[in-house]
Amino acid sequence: MLCANFLQAQQNDEFKMAKKYFDYQRFMLDNEFRKKFDEEKNIQQKIAIKTDFSEFMIKLDSIQNIAFIGTLIKVKNREDLERITRKNTSAPHLENPEKTDLNEEASYPGGFETLRKQVAHLFYTGSVLPDQKLLKTNVVFVVEKDGSISSVHAEGENFTFNRQAEIAMYLLPEKFSPAIINGNAVRYRFRLPLAMNFD
């Protein structure tokens, strides 16, 4: 079980490291463009600098998304290997308690609305085709005993939307409060319906 906890921590760290790297790149670009903008006296050149900055940020968002997709693939491969190993070693399976058995359900700090807002904020909309208006998915994941999440899987009609929802879940800044039975934290399967309107 120590191995499973280590893998989960490593997965979250991989997403955090990728995000930290791109946040730093964004910070550096912002500083350089701001310096150039402040030094420029010509109004037309200032407008051109702002346009260049916007284009750079759009490209950086796209590159960041590619990095997150690569991280998601690594995480999912590792989870699949962990699942196979767990089956072969007869390790304990996911506790899937009935709601009536629970003293406390798993919950996110601030509740569902905060969770949905953070997922929407972390969602990369640049990957969704412009002709798509309303997209829906159900995100199923496991809240681990320490409040971290694993085994994130989005089930919906649009593959790209599903992948972006999975990435956003792994990027959440806060841990969940785990589900509790008889004073003990337990692993808990969680389902989050998501819908986004792209008008």
Task: Describe the protein's topology.
Elements: H1 2-39, H2 43-88, H3 111-122, E1 134-143, E2 149-156, H4 159-170, E3 179-181, E4 184-186, E5 188-197
Antiparallel strand pairs: 1-2, 1-5, 3-4
Word description of this protein:
The protein is α+β, with helices and mostly antiparallel strands. The chain folds into two domains: 1-93; 94-199, Fusion Protein Consisting Of Minor Coat Protein, Glycine Rich Linker, Tola, And A His Tag, Chain: A, Domain 2, CATH 3.30.1150. Helices cover 54% and strands 17% of the residues. The protein contains four helices and five strands, in the order H-H-H-E-E-H-E-E-E. A three-stranded antiparallel beta sheet has the order 2-1-5, with helices on one face. It has a two-stranded antiparallel ribbon with strand order 3-4.
**How many strand units?**
5
Q: Which regions contain 5 or more consecutive residues with pLDDT less than 50? A: 1-7
Secondary-structure arrangement, i.e. CATH architecture of the largest domain = 2-Layer Sandwich
Order of helices and strands, N to C?
Answer: HHHEEHEEE
Distance between the termini: 45 Å
- Whole-number tally of structural domains: 2
Overall body shape:
elongated
- What's the CATH topology label of the largest domain? Fusion Protein Consisting Of Minor Coat Protein, Glycine Rich Linker, Tola, And A His Tag, Chain: A, Domain 2
Task: Outline the biggest β-sheet.
Answer: 3 strands, antiparallel
- The number of helical runs is 4
Per DSSP, what share of the residues sits in E-state strands of 2 or more residues?
15-25%
Query: How is the largest sheet built, in terms of strand order?
Result: 2-1-5
CATH class of the largest domain: Alpha Beta
Structure classification? alpha+beta
Calculate the mean pLDDT score and round it.
84
Give the % helix. 40-55%
Radius of gyration, CA atoms, in whole angstroms: 20 Å
